[in-house]
Design a protein that fits this description.
The structure is a homodimer of 344-residue chains.
Chain A: H1 5-10, H2 31-37, H3 42-47, H4 49-63, E1 67-69, H5 76-79, E2 85-88, E3 92-95, H6 113-116, H7 118-130, E4 136-142, H8 144-153, H9 161-169, H10 171-195, E5 199-203, H11 212-218, H12 220-228, E6 237-240, H13 248-253, E7 258-260, H14 267-274, E8 279-284, H15 293-307, E9 313-317, H16 327-339
Parallel strand pairs in A: 1-4, 4-5, 5-6, 6-7, 7-8, 8-9
Antiparallel strand pairs in A: 2-3
Chain lengths: 344, 344
Amino acid sequence: MPVAPVVAAYRGEAVERTPVWFMRQAGRCLPEYRALRERYSFAEVVQAPDLAAEVTLQPVRRLGVDAAILFSDIVTPVQAVVDGIRIRPDRGPVVDHPFRSKDDLARLRPLDPEADLPYVLETVRLVRGALPPEVALIGFAGAPFTVASYLVEGGKSSDYRHTKALMYRDPDVWDDLVDRLAGIALAALRAQVAAGAQAVQLFDSWVGALSQADYRRFVLPSSRRVLAGLADLRVPRVHFGVGAGHLLEAMAEAGADVVGVDWRVPLDEARRRLGPTVAVQGNLDPTAVGAPPDVLEARVNEVLAANGGQPGHVFNLGWGVLPDTDPGALRRVVDLVHAHRPPA
Amino acid sequence: MPVAPVVAAYRGEAVERTPVWFMRQAGRCLPEYRALRERYSFAEVVQAPDLAAEVTLQPVRRLGVDAAILFSDIVTPVQAVVDGIRIRPDRGPVVDHPFRSKDDLARLRPLDPEADLPYVLETVRLVRGALPPEVALIGFAGAPFTVASYLVEGGKSSDYRHTKALMYRDPDVWDDLVDRLAGIALAALRAQVAAGAQAVQLFDSWVGALSQADYRRFVLPSSRRVLAGLADLRVPRVHFGVGAGHLLEAMAEAGADVVGVDWRVPLDEARRRLGPTVAVQGNLDPTAVGAPPDVLEARVNEVLAANGGQPGHVFNLGWGVLPDTDPGALRRVVDLVHAHRPPA
């Protein structure tokens, strides 16, 4: 199978046109997705391979993006291991009995992907079989810190007070917790690659809440374990967190081939800080997709100009598609990115 | 009146010991505050000078901090001008009819502090009269962007989609909106200084949601108008936003004498980027106050070490005191900071 442009760009190879996909592209902004969600819950879609595959493929058809990303949630693997984790509409993951002490560690047995997540792997196989070779399928998992934050807080947090309290009060329990979560993420990602994913993204969505010193002490080792554990598979490893501009270098050091950048850090600065061996992904402000067409076009061109035509750039938003986004505007972004040619 | 240590440190002068106060120090973590709030709403406290003064003074008595900060809300001045803005417990400011178009601008008449906010100015006078000369009284206001975000979103937001949409869609209306809000903030701050505040903090709490390019285009001019408009009063002007580490230089350029830094950016980096003429305030992670005593002490010392004994540092948290914080731990922070002597 020829190398898909997204994969080539992730590897830093020259590509004819900049590839593009969108975080949370299979989501609430697509009417065909909303129609399907009127009949099935989030959990029902994730656990039914034909539905999950359909939802994964919808944005490829409608938007013309260069990659599909597995429709799933960052807590899907840990949900298969721990009882009492649910995805609530507009609240995200909630955990009935938050993890707060050493005794809770026993609730985290290792993940056996073929037994625990057969529906995810079947979804990967269905999607890969349905996609043309030039469209990559990206697998993903939540990074240990971010998954731990849901387990410890009991859901989404604004300050991560319980998570940080556990780090500061009982670093041994914390280290054990994120090590177990690293094992789960690694097993999930290896199985997704074996089933057909050609790149993986490790989402550390909320890690920007930490200082770089805390990141290095409490997060980097477990994230590195996940990323290093994928090295032999030779698929590009993307690593991303929102509001994590102060951590870009450290996230690359954790073993990322590609660092996702949110809109707060211009790509020229990100590239300067990351050096020539790390590719970048990003970074249009998701709110700019709702701007008037001339403003949107200018913003897309600013992102491309900030990258300056260097190889190793995959266009994306700096965070997920907003629910009220017009799919037509997303399609225009794809067309603008594809029509762009770097200055000779 | 002798110069209070906080004011001297804000000016970059050498002080015997590092001064310290806490954002949101007059708040839910103090039992005497909670007792008072069982009898009076937030709005009732703000509008009753004897109560507001009492609540402003409580942390000075209990914690031994070097500054009192006026008990108020960042929307208090605009509340006096616009109907239908309320402070809801655990939700913050909510606006009944959000500002979305040119027609809404007429709702923002200029502020006449003596007529519109007599209770705030009386509070300032009462507090200043009750404080010993070595404890500074800090006035404050919300910066135009952050106040605009409440008016446009209708409350606290996670993505500022309506605020950014207004910027992108109708920059003239946006500019007019923040210019009017700059006038309101400036009038409020000038009146607070006339009534006895010896320093002011302009809170741009949520501005970290913007890229530096958007900050410079859509925010800096109105913030500069506020800060420049205070120059003749010769009081230190502190400027702060949370998660705004990528904007530190631009916020200094807006006219701050002192830039508040959250815990994500170490003070040595902040000082390197801001240069020798700008003082800094910060930046202990608020969650660290709940850590075991040895960890807390180490964290306090790390902040002090990162500043490296340079003049022009006022110790603070990197964001507000968390509601479940033990006041005894805050008192220990004050004592640790005061006991610290920079290496000779």
